[in-house]
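thought: fold this chain, then report.
action: predict
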Amino acid sequence: MAERILAVYDEDFFYAERLADFINERKQAPFKALAFTALERLMSYGKDHEIDLLLIQSDIPKEEIKGLSAGQVFYLCGGENGPIDESSKGIYKYQAADSIMRDVMEAYLTSDEEAGGRVISRTGRVIGIYSPINRCLKTSFSLTMGQLLSRDLKVLYLNFEDCSGLGTLIGEEFKGGLSDLFYYYSQEKYSWVRLGSLVYTWGELDYVAPVRYPEDLNQIGAGEAADLVRRIARESPYETIILDLGQFGKKAAEILEACDVIYMPVKDDCVSAAKIEEFEDYLSVSGHDAVTKRIEKIKLPYHCSFGRRDSYLEQLLWSELGDYTRQLLRKQP
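observation:
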């Protein structure tokens, strides 16, 4: 499939360049982004090249770009300035760059354009983090690993818990997330463009918001969830996918089959040890022996309560848990 072009036009050089750079670096959409700050250069480029999607500042009249061949046009609006007319599509330009791309991808998917996009020729590595015991720092470890890995790799974090608290910790109000992804997949409407319309970014780490309600986990079975993970690994640009598995219980074994490596936090008390033993017995009798071979048990260092809740995630990186995770990653091939 030919490379799709997304053109960004804004007279503010830094805005246009930074937005284009973000799109190209994050690879959240199946486009190559080009920045333009002079209308003449944009028009000249459009004469010889097809532009699939154009983001353009809102005060440019349609007449001035009439001769430009662009599949779709979105007007970048600031303050009270909206699109030139009501039929035009407007996007607020001063929101976070990942929010702009979610809005663009959502609108793009409602058009007549094919939603499939390109297929990536390599498969990303899937890391599962699961334990049958509770209060074992599983999510803190998952987020710490995700932040560290995303400094060098393209990483996607998926949280399968019914009540994750992630929105409160990060300070984000989610418009869409895993509930929508499950629905699209169950209706055979999944594509990695749809995935891109649901991706948020925290630091360098991409993530899909957890389910809205605990009941939404029932939209999809463990086997289907595993197939969805495999498809994301196969068709998206993510080099690593981190699965923070929560409330699937023993059904988690089917999702763990999709993982290349599994980290299992453990504790020393007898109740925790009994739960681990019971889960391992289940893997053996249910035909999931291959999963057992991929499990690496880890004893995570408990950190003291520190700082404010709104800075908890950042401080994790410099805690004992952060140091432990760095050492663990250095040992990996």
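thought: worth noting. The two ends are 34 Å apart (CA to CA).
final: tokens above.
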